[in-house]
Design goal:
It is a single chain. It is built from two helices and seven strands; from the N terminus they run E-E-E-E-E-E-E-H-H. With 156 residues, it is α+β, with helices and mostly antiparallel strands. The chain has a four-stranded antiparallel β-sheet with strand order 1-3-4-7, covered by helices on one side. The protein is globular, with a radius of gyration of 23 Å.
């Protein structure tokens, strides 16, 4: 346990590696330091082991806060349904996890546009962007080109 690196548990604000700590697997809807904005029972241990508890029940994981040689995983339920994945690299572990849960959503390119290229309350009165008919847009890349050419520039 001394050289283990343990990551996961969802969005555990203010915490990254959990070695020697106890974390709560419960959603507190808190984005402040120490809060849990999103609880997840997925853990990655030393880039070779991944575990996923098949539950949404609240729980607590202790990674040696009481005894440095003991790891305790508990959930508020009468049984523990746990998937363990062992592989040689972190990429292989993610592939194993995605085989279990499905691939993450891949958003289209235009979903990653910078928010500063969009008109805001500061720029709306200065200059209006050129209007483009929706029928003239053929692909997402065409849409990005149009957006770049019609973006309102900020002047000091």
């Amino acid at each position: 346990m001394q050289r283990e690196s343990i990551y996961g548990g969802g969005v555990q604000n203010g915490r990254f590696s959990h070695r020697g700590k106890r974390i709560e697997i419960v959603n507190t809807n808190s984005w402040t330091d120490g809060g849990v904005a999103f609880a997840s029972s997925v853990l990655l241990v030393n880039e070779r082991l991944c575990s996923h508890a098949y539950t949404f029940a609240p729980g607590a994981y202790d990674f040696g806060s009481v005894d440095k040689n003991t790891v305790t995983i508990s959930h508020d339920m009468p049984y523990l349904d746990l998937f363990l994945m062992v592989d040689t690299t972190p990429v292989s572990l993610l592939q194993d996890y995605y085989q279990l849960t499905g691939n993450p959503v891949l958003l289209p390119k235009f979903a990653f546009m910078r928010a500063t290229s969009m008109p805001t309350t500061e720029t709306i009165g200065r200059r209006q962007p050129k209007k483009v008919r929706a029928s003239s847009l053929k692909t997402a890349s065409d849409m990005l080109k149009v957006k770049r050419t019609t973006a309102v520039s900020r002047k000091a």
